[in-house]
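Sample 1 of the test manifest.
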Amino acid sequence: MSVTTWGWLIIAFPLAGSVLIGLLFRVLPAKAAGWIGTLAIALAFACSIGALLAMLGHPAEEREFANTLYDYAGAAGIPFDLGIYVDQLSVFMALVVTGVSMLIHLYSLAYMGSDAGYRRFFSFLNFFVFSMLLLVLAGNYVLLIVGWAFVGFASYALISFWYRRRTATAAGMKAFVINVIGDIGLMFAAILLIKEIGVSDYGSVFERAPEAFTTNEWTIVAICLLLMLGAFAKSAQAPLHTWLADAMEGPTPVSALIHAATMVTAGVYLIARSYPLFTLAPTAADIAAFVGLFTLLMAATIALAVTDLKRIIAFSTMSQIGYMIVGVSIGAYSAGLFHLMTHAFFKALLFMAAGSVIAAMAAVQDIDRMRGFRRAMPFTSAAMIAGALALAGFPGTSGFFSKDEILAFAATRGGMYWIFAVGGYIGAILTAFYSFRIVFRVVYGEPCEEARELEQGHIHHGEPINPATGEREDTDVGFPGPEHHIAEREWPMKVAMAVLAFGALFGGLIQIPGVTDVLESFLEPVFAASPIAAGVHVSTTDAYIGLAVGGICSLLGIGAAFYMYMVAPGSTVRLRDRFGRLHDFLFNRWYFDELIDALVYRPVVACGRFASGTFERVVVDGIVRGTSDGVGGLGTVVRTAQSGFVRFYALLVVVGLAVLGLYFLLAAS
Amino acid sequence: MGTTWYLVLSALLFAIGAGGVLIRRNPLVILLCLELMLNSANLALLAFGRHLGNADAQVFAMIVMVVAACEVVVGLGLIVAMYRRRIPLDVDENRGLRG
Amino acid sequence: MEQVAFFAGAIGALGGAIAVIALRNPFYSVLALVVHLFSLAGLFLLLHAEFVAAAQVVVYAGAVMVLYVFVAAYIGGFEEPLWDAIPGQRILAPLVAGALFVELSIAVLGSGLKSLGSEGEVIPIGFGSPEAVGRLMLERFLIPFEAASLLLLIAAVGAVVLAGRRPEPEGRVDREGMV
């Protein structure tokens, strides 16, 4: 089968799964829905492998395939078609997305087991995977926007999955609104692109772009900045990042899939895919890189202070995506994408482990209350440690190789780009620290009450509460179910976590500089036209130096965490008290929410109030009422002719007749 | 007698009928004045018919008579109904349809 | 001879018309109209419309006027108040009617139809006879004839519906004539 046929199948299976579960949700038994969903994604994964194998049958330079199902150019008036574009980049993204999604579906089979909305969950989850695959396989910018928008919707639907929880629905709306801002940027970018070049499919755009634009011409810079707006909203980079922390209101598998492994990486994919445009607008690329660096550092510092387990991991995601954005903006395309893949593995793993721990804690997410789970949940603890090691970039793990490759590239590029290398390494120290903050708090130490209960053999059952506000809830439809599922007792969760742990720990082996280089050589032809990739070659020596520095950074971070949590417990508390103001600043997430509230929300609401209160009441209503009053007044004047007297009407008739007669007489004479 | 005489007479009768409609308040008398007007029209019709030697005018006049009869029937029915319901038989009193 | 007949008929018609609008008692007005109709029938005879004249006497003065007489008797007399509800109607009405008459006269007298002064065409024998009118009605004017009969039917039904007794309580009547 041809590569593009595999491509269409990749998209078709999750869509079919979603529609099937959605249509049959009343008659389908719960577990069946889960298996259908998982099977759909497994089939999509198999098709991705099929596409890869079919692609490998072609020589390296000729691995770009486009295929169109229907051309809308005539009907819609703009040049786009229902077409996919399968090259190494798309296949890579499809493999990552379907692979990780398949494992998360497996995990959710057990984790969401007692939820009343089980079938709805799998339908939405399948729909999300379909949209994400549509996004990465789309062949033109317009279809990309379609996939982009669907992904945004799926994210909203899944964040607000427990829809009777007010915090969840508020978080869903916040995520959607911020994503829409990004969508607007993306749409304007596409409009500008079509206006300037006249086509929207990737092949033609990238071909014609160098002729249509001069470097750093304001149109191409504007297009790239607008693309970045979309990318930053979707990938939660500053200042459009405030939604990601709140998005943790969704169920843990959702956080794992959408807000760690796949959706938030859509921005990275967009920048990587549009690299010819960014090559023509180096200013925009540099701005993107700096935003990524800023987010990287900001999120890492926040992760040091917040106490909700899922939020720590969310800020960690933000930070790591900052690395990826830096990577694809400065030209380290394959390195950035490699980090995307490894991040998907270890971040999903961390979320899964966190889900297990939170289940054991009866839905409490506060890290201050969790301690010492290593005896009660050995498997989960091991998974958590594996994920944290990879996140911290411990030598030998996948994160080690991927993260440091980006930084080595930055260092090699030289000049201004040393800032990224230095900032990245500082970020690496912070990353290592906070990842092991989690580990040492949750896994080690004296077992907390819930852990001790679990050691005895039963999961702690508290009152069903909202972890954010602490208020009591129901366990019916629209709320989390009454039972909690931990990895030790559910084999699907175990299998998924084991596979991901393997990938997190050993996934880096495919891209050891100088030794394997599998990924880089695979992706190289995609970015062959980039002058940066052609001009900057990281020599093997430099790469190993970079790796060494990265390894030292990670060990430093782990060591510091070990000291502060294990050797000298209480030192963090003393630090917090000493630097109270700094801690508050970090704990309140750099006050970004308050900033947006003051800068954006309040003025808009004031405008709205003005519009509805004053403008609407005085101007619009005034015009409408004035018109109606005028007409009414005119009517009152005319009304006097309707006196009700028949003889008066008859008089008018005769007068009219006389006047007519007079007219005709005069006309005839 | 020339046709002019008949036509002038017809015009005079028509004007008298119109004046009657405008002046009188009893609906019955108003209907009578309407009859005056209709008959004056008939006279004019027949005068012209005789003048042109065309008997179509006479058929026309018959039809006018039929229409007048219908109108009288309905009008008188109305007046009887009004009288039965004790509505005052005065067109000036009955101005419920004023705007 | 013809002039005498014409003036007799004309005076009768005019007198009847003026009596209709001037007499206070509606019953007398009805009788005046009957006189007017008879005079008009005479004038019709002068115009060689024999059948129409006969129909005028039999149908119009005979049946329709009898209907009027019945209703006038049923309703009874009714004194019209002297004051006028519509300001100016008493003055305007005669004025407007007069203006109408003047215009029509000017139209007739001053028209370019000079031949109006004469007697007109030569009338064939049997011009206004029932046979001639009947033939016209059934040949050329069949459809208007049938339509007129339909109209009569509808009017009759309408009158029955309007004036028929209805089982309603008779209520008070307010000033505006609403029950």
